[in-house]
Amino acid sequence: MHAPLQLAPEVASALADGRPVVALESTIISHGLPRPRNHAAALEFEAILREQGVTPATIAVLDGVPHIGLDEVGVRRIAEDELAKASVRDLPILAARGESGATTVAATAHLAAMAGVRVFATGGLGGVHRGASGTFDESADISTLAVTPITVVSAGVKSVLDIAATLERLESYSVPVIGFGTTVFPSFWLRESAFALDWAVENEQQVADVMAAHDALGHRQGIVVANPVPADQAWEPAEHDRVLAAALALAEAEGVTGKAVTPFLLGTIVELSGGRSLEVNLDLARNNVRVAGRIATAWAARRAGAAG
Ligand code: PSU
Ligand code: MN
User: Fold this and answer.
1) Phi-psi category of 299—alpha, beta or left, where left has phi over 0 and alpha has psi -120 to 50?
2) How far, in Å, is the centroid of ligand 1 from the Cα of 142?
3) What is the dotted CATH code of the domain comprising 122-308?
């Protein structure tokens, strides 16, 4: 068996000193974004955090060891190697066999929480797939957030999913969903979906307040912060609807199922949109990283205040 967790030195010292840390996932890099843009994106997400004085902790399993924070070689590996897509259930298998994997939102959240990282930025959460009443295809991102104390900043869930069912499942699992400057749940490439949110916050201090109250009440779930892509960067809705319908039809025609569904749809949508969806995906992810950095900073300041 390999060591349970390997913290990068800068992550270990930031956590020990109570300085802000933000977790970043590796599946979005290995399976969600095309090469070579994925490598540039991984470096850029880390750079955005560093500019805010926040330590990035990109998470992946390398040769059986879950890494919390990667060095330059590690970041290159998640972008260039053929890594397995690893969710929570895959972690013990990779660890026992000394194999590598790119961690999904679920696996990243699990490992980050184990390491004591409280804030995590991604693009979009996984959720309940369309047709799930027949296929039972619901991402482990949802069930993991039910039992994992971490605040995840995402642009909602992709419109390829059944958004209503995803929100219902988050409710069943008692996972709070908070709009960041919005009362409408965003749908990844678009600022809005058809679904209203019960709760909105205006700033990162208010998110830190909810995190503190969540802890004080003994809650062990995650918190979803839904952060819509800025209006001038969102995808044109008509074009979005056309490409989405075509991609869903193609997935159905090709009989794509299981863990291949999300990467297939994302790749097809990039192709059918002539790359437009990719630009929006990158913009919304950058934006989520920035907001997560602000939340982690507010959280660290709050804890320092409470301790001092
Ligand atoms: N959303 C994106 N890009 C991604 C993913 C989600 O915009 O690459 C990835 C995340 O890693 C998420 C995973 O955890 O897809 C969900 O996959 P599944 O539906 O198979 O659980
Ligand atoms: Mn699935």
Assistant:
1) alpha
2) 11
3) 3.40.1790.10
